[in-house]
Design goal:
By secondary structure, the chain is mainly alpha-helical. About 45% of the residues lie in helices and about 10% in strands. The protein is built from 23 helices and eleven strands.
């Protein structure tokens, strides 16, 4: 049977990078095994649906290069791919389950159940609606058939799974091994809500079966639901898919799952794209392939020392057996480093064409040659494309002030005299490429530390000791601007 996996987010908000990593592992598993990657939107909870979230999910996957083979925006043989459009399908299968005696109607009101829960809490007991007490409640198991039919026409109801006590539910997880649960530990979960919409658990199982999903790869937060899903499969006499529950992405410091608040507090994004006031990885200047590379390593290890992988490499080497069980701490500095590596080997032309919004900081009146030269000079200093905006300032503005610590350090070596000599080079149109040889000849008589000479020149041109090669800076600035900065330093 061909491998079929699905990524099934709920459009209740922006896609978190934890969700994006889940999508990535599904995608890589499908590509590794020559299968299909399906996008399904689980939007049965219409009250929690957020405007724009569905398109955000689709846009995020597209930007990341995780293109589904089937989904809401393309043709597929197993649609519709929005659960809200599959209501008739769920109605058919819930009737089948009831007819099989595996589910039943329940007419209990929310108020009645809340009162019972409160009484249990007072007695320090946990309340569970199931085999031990279901006959005491208002449901089709405690009512006659005739009375049930009357209630169905006049009273709101839900449909519950009829859990058989005394059974051992044994399910294999591809990452964690076998998991066993006593059926008494699972209550009679609601499968269809009183608005007629299925719960996640029921729709999830029905859709996975009908869409012929072979492997369910999802976050470990769904591990407690595994036994329930297995019981629904058994109630239908369906063969379940293979399951894999991925480890959590943890916050960099402390314990717990990475959250939006952690990103806001520590200054890094947690969404692939911008959402409301929050910048995404795209807006911070990440190449999507670099983010994908980082996320792949966040809970999976190829078994080698290598850390930089393009997508086609990941598709070949990805092995689900190398997914770790424990949570993986998010490390923004590591993500930046990987992005830096991708910027190092990505051609400048490709960067300019793909990410024009970051190149706008280089003036439009500059020639293409100059814009390219500046980018190449700064490339080694870029960890994010957004860094270009800051790093390029040295070419855009003359220094307004000079590092006082450096000034105090070089003052005894007569920086005015040193810069005066460079001014003569500029005025006499000496090629910048000859400046180093010429200043060394001049210094044979002066005997100044060569470091002080170069620090004086850098301070005059940049205002501090940072930046790329000095003579490369001079070439890009041109003779006129270089001379202006040297004279301004002398006046200072």
């Amino acid at each position: 049977m061909s491998v079929r996996v699905r990524f099934a987010p709920s459009p209740t908000g922006p896609l978190h990078i934890g969700g994006l990593r889940t999508a990535l592992y599904n995608y890589l598993y499908a590509k590794k095994n020559g299968g299909e990657f399906i996008l399904r939107l689980e939007d049965t909870d219409q009250n929690r649906k957020v405007e724009g979230a569905e398109q955000y999910i689709i846009d995020s996957l597209r930007w990341s290069g995780l293109l589904p083979d089937e989904g809401p925006s393309m043709q597929g043989a197993f649609g519709p791919y929005r659960q809200s459009e599959r209501r008739a399908i769920y109605e058919k299968y819930i009737i089948e389950l009831i007819d099989r005696g595996q589910a039943y109607y329940a007419f209990d009101t929310t108020e009645q159940l809340n009162d019972i829960r409160a009484k249990h809490e007072e007695q320090k007991k946990s309340f569970k609606y199931g085999a031990n007490n279901r006959i005491e409640f208002n449901n089709s198991l405690s009512q006659s058939h005739e009375n049930t039919q009357k209630l169905l026409k006049s009273v709101p109801y839900v449909v519950r799974l009829k859990v058989t006590p005394g059974k051992v539910i044994k399910v294999k997880d591809g990452i964690r091994g076998y998991i066993e649960v006593q059926s008494e530990e699972v209550d009679d979960k609601i499968l269809v809500k009183n608005d007629g919409m299925p719960t996640y658990h029921f729709a999830n199982v029905v859709d996975d079966h009908l869409m012929k999903i072979t492997h369910v790869i999802r976050g470990e937060e769904w591990l407690p639901s595994l036994a329930l899903h297995q019981m629904i499969y058994e109630a239908f006499d369906w063969s379940p898919p293979e399951f894999m529950h991925l480890p959590l992405i943890l916050k960099p410091q402390g314990k717990g799952k990475l959250s939006k608040r952690d990103g806001e507090k520590m200054g890094f994004p947690v969404f692939p794209l911008a959402w409301e006031e929050s910048k995404g990885f795209r807006e911070r200047g990440f190449l999507p392939e670099a983010l994908i590379n980082y996320l792949a390593l966040l809970g999976w290890n190829p078994g080698t020392e290598e850390e930089i992988f393009k997508m086609d490499q990941l598709e070949k080497i990805f092995e689900s057996s190398k997914i770790q069980k424990g949570g993986a701490k998010f490390d923004f500095e590591k993500a930046r480093w990987i992005n830096h590596k991708f910027l190092e080997f990505t051609e400048q032309k490709a960067v300019f064409e793909r990410f024009p919004e970051f190149i706008k900081c280089l003036p439009a009146h500059w020639s293409e040659k100059k814009r390219s030269a500046v980018y190449e000079l700064l490339r080694d200093r870029l960890f994010l494309l957004d860094d270009l905006r800051i790093e390029s300032r040295l070419f855009l503005n003359d220094p307004e002030e000079y590092d006082s610590k450096v000034m105090n350090k070089i003052e005894k070596h007569n920086p005015e005299k040193i810069i005066g000599q460079f001014i003569q080079f500029a005025k006499n149109s000496v090629s910048v490429r000859e400046w180093k040889n010429e200043i060394q000849k001049w210094n044979e008589k002066e005997g100044l530390p060569f470091g002080a000479i170069m620090q004086s020149l850098r301070l005059a041109l940049v205002g501090n000791l940072s930046g790329p090669d000095l003579f490369d800076i001079c070439e890009v600035l041109g003779n006129e601007i270089t001379l202006r900065r040297l004279e301004k330093f002398i006046n200072h």
